[in-house]
Request: fold
Amino acid sequence: MISQAENVTLTQVGAGTPMGELMRRYWMPALLSWELAEPDGEPVRVKLLGEELVAFRDTDGRIGLLDEFCPHRLVSLWLGRNEDCGLRCVYHGWKFDVDGQCVDMMNEPEDSDFPSKMTTTSYPTIELGGVIWAYMGPKEHMPPPPKFEWAAVPATHRHVTKNIQECNWLQALEGGIDSAHATILHRTLRVDTPHAGLRVDSPHVQGKPPELEVDITDYGYRYAGIRSLGDEGNHVRAYHFVMPFHQIRASQRGYRGQAGPVGFLASGHMWVPMDDHNVMVWNWDLSYDEPIEEQERVDMDRGYGRGPEHMLTDFRTRVNRDNNWMINRSVQKTETFSGIDGVNAQDVAVQESMGHIVDRSRENLSRTDMAIIYARRQLLQAARSVAEGGTPPGVGDNYYMLRPSQAILPVGVDWRDALWDDLYPDGSQSRNGTK
Reply:
């Protein structure tokens, strides 16, 4: 349980708030590259950390991310003309380049020097992994590019999607890093059900409730959910939490030392605050060996509940609080634990059901909530550090080659010893983490 004051600190992300200033010290995913596919194409609205922005790809292919509202009369630049290396307001013709500099004013005399004096808010961007990233913090503190392994591989070996949830960002993040819920919320009740979820005969479901172990690191923490399978050993699933909103997790399909289906041996999420009441959930999958086939992409999206039939054109899900998340009580009795179709849809339902911002002072946390407790501690500590002029964790390049792992290990074998080379294939971490 945390105090109401701490809850406010963790959940408010606007400019000038402790968490908002912390978030502005990291690169944040803003758009999928295909949303700005063509030079001089249609601008796109973007909302990050409570700021209303507009993005465009100019004639030379450069990406601008500007304050949505023209500084002249505050008309939306989303209405603007994307032409000749600039975005021009349709009201009076003020034109801005990707750096936010006004380069022309159609309503001013030709000899006016006013355009050179006028700028608008502009944020640096970088394009990596099929994603356009933005940095909204002080330029002197700009971190290295976010070269996660999934963002550095060819497009054939990664799959990236996003969806909007109507709740505070921390509810979504805490749902994602919570190991205990997966075998409950996402389980099926029989092996032959057509609905997606964890099969009732999978190690996740067959094992006992997880024991959580967390090690603090210089990028966030690593953690493992350990489930006893009796005489078979322990099912271990090891993750990374990278500040401030990244998770790297093993796929349900890939086990160490086991030759399984080609494909998604690593997956992850990024929970990016749009404002205090909405979060953009980014989802990625990485194949270490063979390319991801198109049908695999389709099947995965549908299984998670992110297929075309599940999504609206604005990246919100058809399953939402307005339709009670389409819960089917008949399916709940006989086929899936939740009665909601799709893993992603199930997460949306429980996280949105808490309200836009949950009152954490009313919670009663248990032993399986350790990952959530540690994340809150790190976020609060990092926000304090930034407010005092310090540097938060996870702004270097020490997360570039992190990998997850999962395995069934003999009883008594420490997961760190068994899985260390999987977790840090480049040898970037020593075995001295503190529990």
User: Anything to note?
Assistant: Residues 254-263 have pLDDT under 50 and may be disordered. Residues 27-141 form a domain with the Rieske Iron-sulfur Protein fold (CATH 2.102.10.10).
